[in-house]
Design brief:
The structure holds 2 protein chains of 2 kinds.
Chain A lengths: L1 E12 L2 E12 L3 E5 L6 H8 L7 E6 L2 E2 L4 H7 E4 L11 H11 L4 H14 L15 H13 L5 E5 L7 H17 L3 E6 L2 H4 L4 E6 L2 E6 L1 H6 L4 E7 L2 H12 L4 E3 L2 E6 L2 H11 L4 E7 L3 H9 L6 H21 L1
Helix pairs in contact in A: 3-4, 4-5
Chain B lengths: L3 H17 L1 H23 L10 H30 L2 H6 L5 H23 L3 H4 L5 H28 L5 H15 L12 H8 L2 H13 L13 H26 L1
Helix pairs in contact in B: 1-5, 2-3, 3-5, 3-7, 3-8, 3-10, 5-7, 5-11, 7-10, 7-11, 10-11
The complex binds adenosine-5'-diphosphate and magnesium ion (MG).
Chain lengths: 327, 255
């Protein structure tokens, strides 16, 4: 059963078409990802889904409610973690959560119970009464996740959930999301421009210039590119080459003192290969195609403008904290 | 349409932050001290007491008005901060009406201003003004109305301000003129005609005049109330309602 249905959705900002007639459906309980470079239209799509923007045309529905016509019903069904932090750093963790609980009309007792429960989930119990000002980037993110879940939404939206965080914190955040999914029945819709992060999704829509150019599981998407690449070194590479040609009708080529061959399902192929070769094997390595290769194949560009994007993010964060200090 | 729990929590957030930011409380006290005892005394030596009032006593109602003006504008400008730092989104995606947000902000801004106006009353013993319990409550009531009016005006501005850069313009071209053209420092009737016209369209003028009715009860113009009390209250009330209506409407459109 699909919990998010998007039909021919378009959003124009004056002459710029940020979202260009996209359609997709997300099943209940799924982790669905939007992968695309900066400016692809990911945030704009989320803003429409969470009722902050109205679409120029097309329809978006969450849990059966129209995002444009029935915003209040949609809002109670969703939790959001925005690309830029939306915590009040002048309040404590507890106060931020309590504010949220009351906005969603939870009564006092229930609010207290949920706050403790969610702080435990994100392991921030000991920081309950500390000002958010003093939290690290990772802790703020975790607090936002706790807040987004406080009213038990059916769908959790995460817009670039780990942008600007170091790889270690990034992994911790993902561990949290995955444990959470094992405990609660929740649908996750996320956007990212990090390849590795997209790997966490059940299905991925690759988006570029406001259009979905591919939509499938990460494994299937990667199959679009080419097979896996196996690099093997033996005591007699020439004879190995001939044997591989004969047994598997595969054309290997010599490279770096070994043989390179391309095949599908490389992990299953390696045992067969080792079994059939008559000489001794010195080393075998396997390289799987990445989603970046998929993007490259589909668009002719790589998605990797991370470095620029991140430094921009850092600058923005700096300007903000600076201004905040001036206040 | 109007949700009580969200309004309550929006107010609580403002109160918590107000009491946490010591500099804001300090500013509340520092500004009137400066005006009353430095400017008030300096000017007071030039202007001879009339109708039994010293200049410093004369400007005291104006100082209450000034405190309300700054406090209310500051409170409502926090909307711009909320937008700039993203917190506004937290409110906008919640299942609450825009009207609840506007009411929450107006209510909290009004109450914080009244609290600050009351704090200013601690100077009364130093000014030789006698205040009865009844007068005290009258001051609180009028402060409430004036705070409500200015906060609504501030929210109307904040709803239209897209970035924080506009704040300085508002301070220099609206807030400061509103202070100087309000009868706070000098009687309205003693102003040149051009300035007097501007003063007459300033809601703060009537708010301060109403405070003069209470605090400078025996004063006679120009050092004393200059308009009938009922007219003062009526004008402030009408302007409040108009401001708040426009604020609620533009807030809705803007977001
Ligand atoms: N409010 C807006 N007004 C005008 N243009 C916008 C607005 N929001 C986004 N855009 C433009 O729409 C495009 C898509 O933006 P966005 O959805 O933020 O991309 P992403 O989140 O994938 O990086 C960008 O070119 C961006 O500049
Ligand atoms: Mg984005």
């Amino acid at each position: 059963m699909s919990i998010i249905t998007v039909n021919n959705l378009t959003k124009k900002f004056k002459s710029l078409t940020a979202v260009d007639g996209i359609s997709f459906a997300v099943n209940e309980g799924e982790v669905f990802g939007f992968l695309g470079p900066n400016g692809a239209g990911k945030t704009t799509t989320i803003n429409i889904l969470c009722t902050l923007l109205s679409p120029s045309s097309g329809r978006a529905e969450i849990a059966g409610f129209d995002c444009a016509k029935d915003p209040d019903q949609v809002r109670t069904s969703i939790g959001l973690i925005f690309q830029d932090t939306t915590l009040d750093v002048g309040l404590t963790a507890y106060e931020n959560l309590k504010f949220h609980a009351y906005l969603y009309n939870l009564d006092r007792r229930l609010a207290e119970k949920r706050i403790d429960e969610m702080l435990a989930v994100v392991e921030l119990q000991t920081r309950k009464h500390d000002l958010v000002k003093n939290f690290s980037g990772g802790m703020k993110r975790r607090l936002e996740i706790a807040r987004g879940l406080l009213h038990y939404p059916r769908v959790l939206f995460l817009d670039e959930p780990t942008i600007g965080l170091d790889p270690q914190t990034r992994n911790t955040i993902w561990d949290f999301i995955n444990t959470l999914r094992s405990k609660e029945k929740i649908t996750v819709f996320m956007t990212t421009h990090y390849m590795e992060e997209a790997e966490n999704c059940g299905r991925i829509a690759i988006i570029d210039h406001g259009r979905i150019i591919a939509l499938d599981t990460p494994a299937k998407l990667k199959q679009m590119v080419h097979g896996d690449v196996i690099h093997v070194i033996t005591t007699d590479n020439q004879r190995a080459l001939a044997e591989i040609q004969k047994t598997f009708s595969l054309a290997a080529r010599e490279e770096n003192g070994g043989l390179v061959l391309e095949t599908e399902k490389g992990d299953e192929f390696i045992p067969k290969l080792l079994h059939s070769l008559t000489m001794q094997t010195l080393s075998v390595s396997l390289k799987k195609p990445t989603l970046n290769d998929v993007f490259l194949k589909l668009t002719g560009r790589t998605i990797r403008d991370d470095v620029v994007a991140d430094s921009k993010e850092v600058t923005r964060e700096f300007v903000r904290s600076h201004r905040r200090a001036q206040r | 349409m109007i949700q009580l729990r969200p309004i309550y929590v929006i107010c609580m957030r403002e109160f918590i932050k107000f009491f946490r930011e010591k500099s804001r409380l300090l500013g509340t006290l520092a500004r009137p001290v400066l005006w009353l005892f430095v400017v008030g005394n300096g000017m007071g030596s030039l202007i001879r007491p009339r109708a039994g009032f010293s200049y410093i006593q004369f400007i005291f109602p104006g100082m209450i008005g000034m405190t309300i003006l700054f406090s209310s504008i500051f409170s409502s400008i926090s909307i711009v901060w909320d937008r700039e730092f993203g917190f506004m989104k937290e409110m906008l995606v919640a299942p609450i009406s825009r009207l609840s947000i506007v009411i929450g902000k107006t209510l909290s801004g009004t109450l914080i201003s009244v609290a600050q106006a009351v704090i200013i009353l601690v100077f009364i013993p130093f000014l030789g003004i006698h205040l009865t319990i009844r007068q005290f409550f009258e001051v609180v009531a009028v402060s409430m109305l004036v705070s409500f009016c200015i906060t609504s005006l501030g929210i109307l501005i904040a709803a239209r301000l897209t970035s924080f850069d506009g704040f300085n313009i508002i301070m220099n071209f609206l807030v400061m003129p509103m202070l100087f053209l309000s009868g706070a420092m000098y009687p309205v009737t003693s102003m040149p005609p051009a300035l007097r016209h501007l003063t007459l369209i300033n809601p703060l003028t009537y708010g301060i005049d109403a405070l003069k009715h209470i605090l400078l009860r025996n004063g006679t113009p120009p050092l004393g109330p200059e308009f009938p009390l009922l007219l003062d209250l009526f004008i402030v009330a009408v302007i409040s309602v108009v401001m708040l209506t426009f604020a609620a409407l533009s807030f809705r459109r803007k977001e």
